[in-house]
Amino acid sequence: MGETKYWTWHMAAGVVILVLLGLHMLIMHLGGITHLYAPLGGEAISKANSLYRDGQLFFTVTYVLLLAVALYHGLYGLRTILFELTLKPAAEKAITFVLLIVGLGLLGLGTWGAIAAHAIAKAGVRG
Questions:
Q1: What whole-number distance in Å separates Cα of residue 66 and Cα of residue 119?
Q2: Which has the least CB within 10 A, 6, 111, 115, 124?
Q3: Residues of the chain with pLDDT > 70: what percent?
Q4: Is the domain defined by 2-123 classed in CATH 1.20.1300.10?
Q5: Where do the structural domains in the chain lie, given as residue ranges?
Q6: What is the CA radius of gyration of the chain?
Q7: How far apart are CA 110 and CA 92, in angstroms?
Q8: pLDDT, average across residues 49-58
């Protein structure tokens, strides 16, 4: 029962990644075609528009959410692949622990980066 719950979260994370990454691709990489989000005019990837987006709480939250679901999806998928090697239970516990620590560390680092970019943009620093 427990593994089914984690697998369901894995699939749900894939759907969230599809939506958020699709939105990211539309805004950042197809911005010249769609003109979906370039509030300051010009290209969506221009420095001014990038700083404007970094200053918006919506984008900061979606960056962190995308990072969290991508890390979960990827690391749980890696864990599942490694478990197919039919390892001993102690090795499986160690793998789970290491992947959990790595995932939380990367999530912390990415969250700090997104929040720092938001704070810099809100302060109006244009390095």
A1: 19
A2: 124
A3: 83
A4: yes
A5: 2-123
A6: 18
A7: 27
A8: 82
CA 105 to chain centre: 13
**CA–CA distances in Å: residue 73 to residues 33, 48, 54, 100, 123:** 30, 32, 25, 12, 34
Helices within 25-88 (DSSP H only): 31-34, 47-54, 57-83
* Tokens standing for residue 9: 């979260």
> Helix, strand or coil for residue 39?
coil
The pLDDT tens digits of the residues spanning 95-127 come to 999 999 999 999 999 999 999 989 988 887 655
pLDDT at 75: 95
DSSP 8-class letter at 7? H
Query: What tokens does 41 get?
Result: 């005019």
The answer to whether 73 touches 65, Cβ cutoff 8 Å, is no
Q: Would you mind telling me the total number of residues written for the chain in this entry?
A: 127
**Residue written as tokens 């950042």?**
28
